[in-house]
Structures are given as C-alpha cells and as structure tokens.
Amino acid sequence: MKLWSAQVAPNPRRVVIYLMEKGIELETVDIDLGAKENFTPEFMAINPLARVPVLELDDGTFLTESKAICRYMEELHPEPALMGTDARDRAIVEMWDRRMEFELMQNMTGAFRHGHPYWEGRIEQVPDFGDLCRRNAEAKMAWLDGEIAGRDFIAGDNLTIADITAICAFGIGRIARIKIPEELENLSAWHARMSERDSVIATGPKPK
Length: 208
Ligand SMILES: N[C@@H](CCC(=O)N[C@@H](CS)C(=O)NCC(=O)O)C(=O)O
Prior knowledge:
Blueprint: E1 2-5, H1 10-22, E2 27-30, H2 41-46, E3 54-56, E4 62-64, H3 66-76, H4 87-115, H5 127-147, H6 161-175, H7 185-195, H8 198-203
Parallel strand pairs: 1-2
Antiparallel strand pairs: 1-3, 3-4
Helix pairs in contact: 1-3, 1-6, 4-5, 4-6, 5-7
The chain binds glutathione.
C-alpha cells in the first residue's frame, strides 16, 4: 500500500495522525499542494478531483476520502479501536465524527479557503462566505465546549477518529486565525491534551 499525502493539509493530516495512533507505517508520497503537484497529469490520473489523501491498495485500487481510508485501515487493524467497539459505540463515534466534519472542519476550511491569500487565484474566493464560516466556527466552538463537559474526548472517555478530525479542523482554523476563546475551558483543556500527543506534534506546524 502507498499513501499519497500532504501533511500540512487537514484531510491528509487526519489520515497520518490516525495511522500513527494505530501504530501503522505506510510508504508515503508527499504531494506539494503549494506547487500544484496535485494538478499534474500523473496525479490527476490517480484522483481526477486533484485532492489528497489517496491510498493505493496492493491490487492497484485508488481509495480517496480520508474517512474511507481510515475505515479501511480500521477493518484491517481493529486495535486500538478508534471507531467504536460495538454497534452503539460505533454509531456514537460516527455521530461525533460527522459533527466534527460538518460543524467544525467545513466551517474552519471555508474560513481559510475564502479568507486567506493562499487561495487567491486558486479558487473563486467569496469573502462574505469566509466571514460566515468564521462566525459559524465560533458558534460551534461554544456549542462543543458545552457538549464535552465532564469527558476527556469528543465521543466519550477514549480517543477516537472524532478527536482526530477535530484537531485537524482546529489546525486549519489556526491558519485562518480562529482561536479557541479562553473562557471555553472544556474545549481549551481538550485542545491542550490533544496537542501533547506525539501524533499531533509530529504532524503539526514546525517551529520556525
Ligand atoms: N473529502 C475529502 C477532502 C480532500 C481534500 O479536500 N483535500 C485537500 C487537502 S485538505 C486537497 O487535496 N486540496 C487540494 C487543492 O484544493 O488544491 C477527504 O476527506 O479526503
């Protein structure tokens, strides 16, 4: 198997953190998104959507979508379980992971894509949409702070894919200058705990 990645970006980073937490090592090819390597004919043949991550299976199948890649690896390597352990638990983890995708990742990514100079000339930016995403992200942080009161992780007492999705969302939110307000104590404490994990440190922005 081979992973096509770009660690600085939230969706490939989600897969890389997930693999590190599972203790799985894969051959990895780093695609330079800044240099538009994802738009070369070679990469477009692998994923015509020009996006990473992509997992190349040994039979030549190209699997895209970060969650699908994690799901595949979870089936191959059930331990440690990062997607739940029984029907109820798996559904709860799935619920929280989808919430982290839709409520956090989409809004943080929208604020970045529509409000950051990196994307000028790369996409059609709609600054008002970026501002709306930022306001939505701020509202969702307040919501999440209340939801996780009394527990260490997003979906319960253990690390799951939902925590990984969320920390990657906050990573891109940081580049869009979205910060967790200090008064959101539960969320701040969760973020501090996650930020100490080797997988998060290893994949995060490097000190200059
Ligand atoms: N839904 C996809 C999203 C993949 C995606 O948007 N990847 C971004 C990096 S986070 C990308 O490759 N962007 C390249 C570009 O837009 O030029 C997933 O979960 O894998």
